[in-house]
Automatic annotation (TrEMBL):
Converts heme B (protoheme IX) to heme O by substitution of the vinyl group on carbon 2 of heme B porphyrin ring with a hydroxyethyl farnesyl side group. Its EC number is 2.5.1.141. Belongs to the UbiA prenyltransferase family. Protoheme IX farnesyltransferase subfamily. The chain crosses the membrane at residues 16-33, 45-65, 86-109, 115-133, 140-159, 171-192, 218-235, 273-294. This is Protoheme IX farnesyltransferase. It comes from Xanthomonas arboricola pv. populi. It catalyses: heme b + (2E,6E)-farnesyl diphosphate + H2O = Fe(II)-heme o + diphosphate. The gene is cyoE.
Amino acid sequence: MAVSARDYWDLTKPKVVALIVFTALVGMFLAVPDVPTWVQIRTGALGFLGIWLAASAAAAINQLLDAKIDAQMARTSWRPLVVGKVRPWQVLLFAGVLIVISMTILVVWVNVITAVLTFASLIGYAVIYTVYLKRATSQNIVIGGLAGATPPMLGWAAVTGLPTSADWINASLLVLIIFIWTPPHFWALAIFRRADYAKAAIPMLPVTHGVPHTRKQILVYTVLLAIVTLLPVAVGMSGLFYLGGAVVLNVVFLWYAWRMLDPPDELFSMKMFGYSIVYLMALFAFLMVDHLLLPWVR
């Protein structure tokens, strides 16, 4: 049976990757203080493509290495490799081609630092997290979350090359936001899917430490997130428009985290999971709009 384009597309986890590359795009915009030059636009577009291809490759490798786990979980049992639509060698070849194209674009037409950081992020997620951390510790998504948090820095590096300490610091603040956001985002899902994780012998926090403990940890990280998201304003990266949006988003997120301590039903954790995705997209959208379209309120 021939492999369809849709099967390859599904291997890239397009919805997840879309959020990843959006934060990279915002990093590109924030890296440029004024109207971007044609060279920056061209380099940014190529960088965006390279980062997207690398993230897609990482997703495909993750599915290759997690095929047995995916087969045991309702959420992932439909994936192309699990149901036999593609073979392992096809997934490996597909991911390899994406990596080669991605690294070629980044090294030749963007810059070496972006290529190095992107490749390190790919290895961090597709190998270190998937092969070891995910199966070894209940803090898997806390430690491994760093690899998934780097896209804003990758975007920043693509258009600037990170030449100064200020570039590194500002880009790192964006990474920190996603890094702190990841635990409450993923643990909300893990609470709802804890039976699947237990069946697959994955030591997610709700499985190893119980749901009540996980709910408390979600609240702790959400409070930390509310604080961390104020740092772009504190360092002068963002202004009042972003501040207003961040405050509103954080109030709602904190309400979800507080309500999670005594949720009305089992589905509430999925509602929080869904909001966490909206939260991150909106937060980075506020960062971009504040930077580009509303300089007069800064």
